[in-house]
Amino acid sequence: MSARMRHFTPINYTKNSALKLITLVFLIILYLPIINLIVFSFNDSKRNIVWRGFTSKYYEKLFENEMLFVAFSNSITIAIISTIISTFLGLTTAIALWKFNFYLKKYYDIALLFPIIIPEICMGISMLVFFSYISWPNFQLWPLSLSSIIIAHVSFIFPFVAIIIRARLSMLNSEILEAGQDLGANRYQVVRKIIVPFVNPALVASFLLAFTLSLDDFVVTFFTSGPNSVTLPVKIYSMVRFGVSPEINAISTLLILIIIICTYFAIKFLSKSNRELMK
Amino acid sequence: MSYGQKVDIIDIDYSWGLANYVRAIDGVYLVTLFKSVVISIITTALCLLIAIPVAFYISFSSTKIKSILLVSILLPLWTNLLIRTYSLIAILRTKGHVNNTLESLWESANHVLNFFRLASYNFIGESFIPLSLMHNNFSVILGLCYIYVPFVIIPIYLVLEKIDRNMLEAAYDLGANHKIVFFKIIIPNISVGITSGIILVFIPCLGSFIIPELLGGADSQMIGNIIERQFKSANDWPFGSALSFILIYITIIILGVRYVYSKLYSRLYPGNIS
Hints:
The complex is a heterodimer. Chain A has 13 helices and no strands. Chain A is mostly helical. In chain A, helix 3 (57-64) packs across helix 13, helix 4 (66-99) runs antiparallel to helix 10 (187-216) and helix 10 packs antiparallel against helix 13. The longest helix of chain A is centred in the first third of the chain and has 34 residues, at 66-99. Chain B has a domain at 16-72 and 135-268: MetI-like (MetI-like fold, Orthogonal Bundle). A two-stranded antiparallel sheet of chain B has the order 1-2. Chain B is flat, with a radius of gyration of 24 Å. The relative contact order of chain B is 0.14.
């Protein structure tokens, strides 16, 4: 009787112990390597196999390491500039796709998704081939030496921004824009006073998202970076190839921390944006 | 560029020949391509096997637990791929944690056997032999699964949320058991999520090169490694472009198949577009 009764009344598969076990084991396996990485960045041992006591010397070492500092500042610079550009491009693309109908719009939509869909390595090498084909100058001066990476990043990040902002824009009643224009606003004012305030939460969220995407990216950067434009993930990659060391753990922990903070705020703004839409 | 020919160290002749494609589909490269496809298929299958129960559990748990679980699955997605791969190395290497744990297990087992004076029979081997978990196909597949499982969980979860729970209850009322409900109701309803999950995993798997590079050995090279080598060390850009274009073609074919499939699907089940 009770065995059959359990099927009635709201279905609840979470009581199933096999499902519970699989989920638990999955989460443990998902987090074990990352937690291990963070814990062992404080380990006082060069070979990093057994725990030999707490230390923060590898973090101190990081701050003395000139190369890592350069890589880090490169990464941050690239992330900031490409985020600003791709947020702007994404916003304008989203407005264009939302407001206007133009020739081949359907195909433009698909083309926008292309950088997201194709394997990252293809994106990276196509950028490499592109820059060599147009013989993009190999600048020696600092901010300019990052220009090719910035262009590459913008080209794969701005579709993400456009998609997020467009999802938000689709909720905006376009008659409001016409009302604004009736009341004497010019086009610039319509964008500034109506569209931007409306998409603001999505704008902030995609800004942070773009920042993490750019900071995190390895594959595309790997192919477009030159000897004088090394970013943090590329630097980590070259360190990882020589084996496991606590310094890599320390720098990875820092990077994870930055990304978690950015993601936290991105999710917060995105859910705020969604909540407002529900009202 | 993939149609050109390399004539010099830096000069490339755009000759519109198919020589690079011909080279790409013979011998060792075809084997590697085939191997990458096989590895990606295995990875995708494993990811699905893990993802379906987990997505199930998430979608049926209470609202609060659900959001915690979702964030905890999304969080690793945002940590760097490279860092996550690196964190696996520390676990899997010969003197890593898995082998250390196994070794201590072996030692305690040996102690127990010693206690019963059975150690001389060598039931569990003369001494502890560390498992070789790194630099083989196993580690590549494990690494790919580890990285890409969240990508399958999310779409499956999203379609599971849309299933009308009353439908499941109705099925149970009508005397269906778990098996019938799963195969007749749940699988057809989440097939859209499954296909997008497969695409989200299969395509990046095929093009991945960090994971086989760092976790794989000499015999577990994937097509991504070969492409990378054409551009970085072998310096044969036209051939590398040809190989990567083959990847893009495969991607487009998969997406095309998916498009046709979804068209057919919506024609077969008109009310069921999700």
